[in-house]
Every structure is written in C-alpha cells, then in structure tokens.
Specification:
CATH class of the largest domain: Alpha Beta
Number of strands: 13
Distance between the termini: 33 Å
Number of domains: 2
CATH architecture of the largest domain: 3-Layer(aba) Sandwich
CATH superfamily of the largest domain: Succinyl-CoA synthetase domains
Strand content: 15-25%
Structural class: alpha/beta
CATH topology of the largest domain: Rossmann fold
Largest sheet: 7 strands, mixed
Length: about 290
C-alpha cells in the first residue's frame, strides 16, 4: 500500500458517532471500563451501547444489536469474545460503519498461523466493504483534544499535551499512562494498533504527521510490514516534528515476548536501527527515556 493518496481516518480519533458493542455493567470488564470512560470524559458525539442481555448500562439505554441502533454509526468499538466477531463484522457492514476497533484478543497472538489467517480474512472482508480496522488485541485509543476515550483507563487520570503516542505492542494503555503520570508527562492522543490486521503504526504516523495538535510523535514498535512506506512517510514528517521510536524485541527473549503480544515478527534490531536513522527518527536507548 505504498501510495501517495492520503487516507481519511478521522473517524477513529474524532468520530461523530460511536457504538460500544459489548457494553457491560460488570465492574472491571472492558465493556464496563470503556463505557464509563466515555461517559466520564463527556464525549460529545452520538453514543450508543449494544448488549442483547441488558436494558441499560450505567444508566444509558442499550440496544440488542447494531441493526437496532438508531441513526448513523461511524465507529464501532468491539469488546466481545473472538468467536463472535464475524457476526459483528457483518452487522457493521449492514449498518454502514466506517471504522472498527477490535479490543478483543484471541487471534494471531494466541493462535499463531491460524489466528493470522483469521485476521487476514477479517481485514479483507472489511476492506471490500469500505471499513477499516484497528486491532485486534488492543487497549483502545483516545483523543483528549476531542473528549474521546475508548481505553480502559479512567478519563480523569489522563493528562493532555501536544505529544501523541502510537503503540503497537504489549505495553498498552495502563503502563503508558502510569509511566507518564509518574514523570508529569501527558499525551494528547494515544493509538494502540495491536496485531495490525489492517491498519498499521505507519498509517497513524502519517495521520499524526498532518495533525496540527500533535507536535511530537512517540512510537513503540514491534515490527514493520512495509519498511519502504514507513521510511517515505517518516522522512517527510521528521524535519517538522520529532519522531521518537523505540523498538521492542531487542533480545531473543524480547522477540518471544513480541510474538506473544501481537504475533509480530520482531526482526533484527540493527536493521531497524538503520531504517530509523535513515528516516531521521530519534531512537531512545530505553523505554523509560
């Protein structure tokens, strides 16, 4: 997908309408935490909760399925078990959804080659029907500049700034928020790309490179599917905005951890460092920097 044509992925970071599929009253569940985060932050778009087994979640009316949700749904956030995902993808097509964030795990990171095959089929099905996917196996995304938070973190503890973070790997939102808070650092935007069945870290590097609210881009990366495209995009952005990239999987044990997080093939660290240097990226020596 090395193309000059720019992608419009605004419905992921600034959606006009959101459906949380799997919204729940069960304390501590992803469906509960994300529903609560959206209400706490004061999301201003149309918000719909989907759960066939509940009349309401946190005081908000629920719908038994996407087909019963009134009006447009730009973005679906999915927190149901992996084995039920295909029915939701089909419902998203029928509803005219533009983007899907699949929080659910149990794909390439858990099932190896078979899980990767399922991810490829999901991505192909959605692309053929004009839908883009973040995930699966992610902890969500947020945009504090637009009162939007579909991560498992309470909105009240998040601190905004003009730094944005793209995370592919297993550090996820909880680790990042706590590390940043301990240093007095905030992040205005956060995107967790996970297994990258469809959209990749590079796609959101391009988005944030054009984003006027982002002045610094931080990236935690476990693998790159299209190194030439990454190089082209990063070279274009780096003279205007610093790009700090930390590569996971630097050791044999780290490579195994990377595979268990997202199913990514980590590759040789020296090769990645050469690519990042050529792209004009800054490479911190450790993730704490």
């Amino acid at each position: 997908m090395d193309t000059e044509e720019s992608q419009d992925l605004s419905f992921f970071l600034d959606p006009k309408s959101v459906a949380l599929v799997g919204a729940s009253n069960r304390f501590g569940s992803w469906g509960y935490r994300i529903a609560k985060a959206l209400l706490e932050i004061g999301y201003k778009g149309a918000l719909r909760f989907v759960n066939p087994n509940a009349q309401e979640v946190l005081g908000i009316k629920t719908y038994p399925g996407l087909g019963q949700v009134p009006g447009e749904v730009e973005l679906a956030v999915v927190v149901i078990p992996a084995e039920r995902i295909w029915g939701i993808l089909e419902a998203c097509v029928e509803k005219g959804v533009k983007g899907i964030i699949i929080i659910s795990s149990g794909f390439g990171e858990a099932l190896g080659a078979e899980g990767k095959r399922i991810e490829e089929e999901m991505a192909l099905f959605c692309k053929m029907n004009g839908i883009r996917i973040i995930g699966p196996n992610v902890s969500g995304i947020y945009n504090l500049h637009r009162n939007f938070n579909v991560t498992g973190e309470p909105s009240g503890i998040l601190r905004s700034s003009h730094m944005s973070f793209i995370c592919q790997g297993g550090f996820a939102i909880h680790d990042i928020v706590n590390r940043g808070r301990s240093k007095g650092i905030g992040l205005g935007k956060f995107v967790h790309t996970g297994n990258e069945a469809d959209l990749q870290s590079t796609d959101f590097l391009e988005v944030l490179g054009k984003d006027p609210e982002t002045e610094v881009i931080l990236v935690y990366m476990e693998g790159i599917k299209e190194p030439r495209r990454f190089l082209k995009i990063a070279r274009r952005i780096a003279p205007q905005k610093p790009i700090l990239v930390y590569k996971g999987g630097r050791t044999r044990a780290g490579n195994r951890a990377v595979a268990s997080h997202t199913g990514a093939l980590a590759g040789n660290i020296d090769t990645y460092h050469a690519l990042f240097k050529q792209a004009g990226c800054i490479m911190p020596s450790n993730f704490e920097t």
